[in-house]
Every structure is written in C-alpha cells, then in structure tokens.
Design a protein that fits this description.
With 254 residues, this protein is α/β, with parallel strands linked by helices. It is built from eight helices and eleven strands. The strands form two sheets. It has a seven-stranded parallel β-sheet. It has a four-stranded mixed β-sheet with strand order 8-7-9-10, with helices on one face. Strand 1, helix 1 (16-27) and strand 2 form a beta-alpha-beta unit.
Length: 254
C-alpha cells in the first residue's frame, strides 16, 4: 500500500464542515491539501471556481458543498478520475441516481453523517426494526437554525435502515405535519431547528406496553470532519472497484 500523503481537495472548503476538514487536513501527515472549490477563484490561496482544475491535482475529493453542484462535480471528478467522498445532503432522486451512475466509473463513498458511532446506530436501527415489526417508528432530529434541509440526511438514513429491517420500500417524506390518524407501518419524522445545535437524532420504537429508544448527540462538529478525513484516506488509498456507492460501514468493516 502506498504510504505517501494523499493529494486532497475539498469541495465547499469555505463552509462550516469544509473549513474544519481543511484545518485537520493541514495538520495530518496523511494528506497534502491542494485546495478547494469556491465561488472565488484564487489558485494562489488554494481556491478554485472550476472543480476540474482542482480535481486534476488530487487523489481524492471530500465534497461538502451543495446538492445543486452534483452534476458539475460528477462530470469533473469522472474526467479527472479522482475518488469522491460525498457528504452532501438534500440530494433529489435525479442527483442520487447520477451519483450511483458515477460510482460505476470512479470510487465513490457517500455518507449523510461521518460519525463512526452513527454507522453502528444504523445497524442497530435495522435490527430493532426487524425484531419489532408491530412497533411504531418515529424519528426526531434537531439541528442549528441555519440548516436548510429537513428532515436531515442522517434522519433519512435512519429511516432507510428501519425500512430495510422491515423489508419495505422507503420513500422520503414530503411533509412532516401529521393531520390525520397515524398510518400503520408509517415511519414518522419530526424536525426541530434552533440555536447552534450541532446535531441530535432519536429513533423511538413505541409498542402497546413499552418503548425502546436509540439516540445520538454530536457535541463538536470536528467529529464529522475527522470522520470525513478517515473516509477520504480509506477511499483514496484503497481505490476500491467502482461498481457501487460505498459507505461508512465499508470503512468500519474493512
């Protein structure tokens, strides 16, 4: 295995998570940071408005930008043959399908949340959903008041885990205000936005006579940046075959 530092780029380098990834990458012997994408084009400062110019210098890209950039990034990263760690939430069905198509051409790892503990949360959610098929499943998530998408990408991943455990199709909720009797088998979602909450997720299984709850709370956004760098190192070093979208579970189990 090549132990030289990986050439790293960060799409969305000036955002909250991108800035933290930058700080940790600069301090890490595993990476040589080549810069990141930005609306401002200043290569001298490591800022590139053209994702292809950045990607051509990199072994792996951490993408924490915006869903609207998915097509442009897919085209640029495929052309540069760079590994792509995608942490963008709020992708629509077309953007998700495009990511799946791109994963057949270059290595792609997608994560709605880079926390290793949450990867285990998803596995526990799937197991409990399978073993408690008649219990109502409700997902409650809380984030800071500047988060635009709801439910969060992590909440949707929890919902997919529940659906997988129950062997049912999962469809993203279009609205969360329940104004009718709860539908049997429904996976419920509630979103709270306020203050500077980094991220809280709770999954409740409610039965006729008991309840079991899984919960996860993030105290520091560095958790996600650290996890993103671990994902980038795994994907960039291993360069697994581009035949599917990889996830954090692949990293943990390797």
């Amino acid at each position: 295995m090549n132990n030289k530092p990986l050439n790293l780029g960060i799409a969305g380098i000036r955002g909250r998570l991108g800035s933290l990834c930058k700080t940790l990458a600069i301090a890490s012997p595993d990476f040589s940071l080549k810069g990141g994408t930005s609306r401002e084009n200043d290569p001298g400062k490591g800022l590139f408005s053209d994702p292809l110019i950045l990607a051509q210098q990199c072994d792996v890209i951490i993408d924490v930008s915006h869903a609207s950039l998915t097509q442009a990034h897919a085209e640029a990263f495929t052309k540069a043959n760079v590994a792509w760690v995608n942490g963008v939430t709020g992708l629509n069905s077309e953007q998700q399908a495009l990511l799946g198509q791109t994963a057949l051409k270059i290595p792609v790892l997608q994560a709605s949340n880079f926390s290793p503990a949450l990867t285990l949360f998803f596995k526990a959610a799937e197991m409990l959903a399978k073993e408690l098929p008649d219990y109502d499943a409700e997902i409650i998530e809380t984030h800071h008041n500047q988060k635009a998408d709801a439910p969060s990408g992590t909440a949707l991943s929890i919902g997919r885990a529940v659906a997988k455990g129950r062997n049912i199709a999962f469809s993203s909720p279009q609205q969360q205000l329940r104004n009718k009797v709860r539908t049997k088998g429904e996976i419920g979602f509630s979103s709270i936005r306020g203050g500077r909450v980094v991220g809280e997720h709770e999954l409740r299984f409610l039965g006729e006579m008991e309840e079991i709850t899984l919960s996860h709370r993030s105290f520091d956004r560095k958790l996600f940046a650290s996890g993103a760098l671990k994902a980038a190192y795994w994907l960039g070093q291993r360069r697994p075959s581009p035949n599917r979208i990889y996830d954090m579970e692949d990293l943990i189990e390797s």
